[in-house]
Design a protein that fits this description.
Elements lengths: L1 E5 L22 E3 L1 H7 L4 H10 E2 L7 E3 L17 H6 L6 H5 L2 E6 L2 E6 L4 H8 L9 E5 L11 H19 L5 H17 L4 H10 L25 H16 L7 H14 L2 H12 L3 H15 L3 H4 L2 H25 L6 H15 L3 H13 L5 H10 L1
Parallel strand pairs: 1-6
Antiparallel strand pairs: 1-7, 2-4, 3-4, 5-6
Helix pairs in contact: 5-15, 6-7, 6-8, 6-12, 7-14, 7-17, 9-10, 9-17, 10-14, 12-14, 14-15, 14-16
């Protein structure tokens, strides 16, 4: 099997008790079947504690641990270290705890693995990349055999070509990122229309270029000054309020999230245009961080369209996620009188990811909204990108 990882993957190392957040708080901990069976047989007082918090799965689903009233894993100690790890050793960790923040996607004989933005340490690596060219990935041969997922090989290779082109769009220089995301959205629409014809997709991708589009490619103005013609900021504000309402209706993991979204909505309801005008001039200093997050979302989700053929919803997930992170950052930036450090930007991105990416329920719900709700249609998304 071929293992494909982003270059920064090898630099990740969990900092355990030194972390500013805990992956053992706020989430239900799923326990794979093998670990569940092992935990049931552990002897002594610790075995009794294990069994007292174990919850069997329903309808064939994996079991889990009953979280405490404060939302924490029952084995998370006050020093933020894991009691189960200390008692039984690293090999005894269930798959969820052993793997996080790593995620895996298998496509036949190719396994893609990365680290999740929801982990603060991982988010620092993702946002902190300084590479200007195309993203780099490491491919290695492993002893694992191919997985038995049933994929359309022709569609897989067409989507691989398309994802490389998506990276190229994101990484095109001289054009503001919001404009590049409009190109990415248009690109995804064309791909979605061809999703049943992989050969047509490959032909389209091979001919596609962001160059040669003249004035339609964007202003090329990287100072952040001025407005692009056509952006309707009042309409954008009304649409953004709908986005916030949709997100507030999802399952809430950390109480700081709805508080932040409430602050965002107050800003959008108030001095949105004035604050946005100032923030746009400041955000150019770290636009590369948003570029890095766009690559992250595309790498993680784009190829999943080989399973459900919904390429447009995957690209909308990327774009809407960046918009929501942008809004939360603008709000905190405004609250702090225009002073916001890298650590705070990392925290915002991590907080968004915790709420969306690590709740399967939220992820699936939002993807359905992206497909069905008019607030997320191409015209509304394009207008928001024009505005910001």
């Amino acid at each position: 099997m071929i293992l494909k990882t982003p270059d920064y993957y090898k630099n990740f190392k969990c900092i355990a008790g030194d972390c500013t957040d805990s992956c053992c708080a706020g989430w239900q901990v799923d326990v794979d079947d093998a670990s569940y069976a092992y935990y049931k047989k552990v002897e002594g007082p610790f075995g009794d504690k294990l069994r007292s918090v174990m919850i069997p799965g329903k309808k064939g689903e994996e079991g889990g641990f009953r979280i405490r009233s404060d939302g924490r894993c029952p084995f998370l100690k006050d020093d933020l270290l894991c009691e189960l790890y200390e008692e039984l050793g690293e090999d005894a960790l269930c798959v969820t705890c052993d793997m996080y923040p790593r995620y895996i996607s298998d496509y036949g004989n190719v396994r893609e693995m990365g680290i999740a933005l929801s982990c603060v340490t991982a988010a620092e690596l993702i946002l902190g990349q300084d590479a200007k060219g195309m993203p780099h990935f490491t491919e290695t041969e492993t002893d694992d055999g191919p997985t038995l997922n049933d994929i359309d090989a022709e569609l897989y290779f067409a989507l691989m070509m398309a994802r490389d082109k998506a990276f190229e769009i994101i990484k095109t220089g001289g054009i503001r990122l919001s404009r590049r995301l409009i190109f990415l959205l248009d690109f995804a629409i064309s791909l979605q229309n061809m999703i049943k014809n992989p050969s047509a997709m490959r032909e389209y991708v091979s001919r596609y270029t962001i160059a040669g589009t003249g004035d339609n490619a964007g202003t090329g103005d990287n100072t952040g000054e001025g407005e692009r013609a056509g952006a309707d900021e009042r309409r954008a504000a009304q649409t953004l309020k709908k986005y916030i309402d949709f997100y507030l209706k999802q399952k809430i993991i950390k109480p700081t999230w709805p508080k932040l979204l409430g602050d965002v909505k107050s800003l959008v309801d108030g001095d949105f245009t004035q604050v946005l005008g100032r923030f746009k001039q400041d955000v150019y200093k770290h636009e590369r961080e948003y570029e890095n997050m766009a690559v992250y979302f595309v790498f993680r989700y784009f190829m999943k369209a080989v399973h459900d053929r919904k390429i447009l919803s995957k690209v909308k997930l990327c774009i809407v996620s960046l918009i929501m992170i942008y809004l939360t950052e603008m709000t905190v930036w405004h609250q702090k009188d225009g002073v916001m450090g890298f650590d705070e930007r990392v925290w915002n991105a991590h907080l968004y990811s915790r709420e969306v990416e690590h709740s399967e329920e939220n992820y699936e719900s939002l993807c359905k909204l992206f497909e069905k709700k008019s607030a997320f249609d191409v015209r509304e998304l394009t207008n928001i990108l024009e505005a910001i």
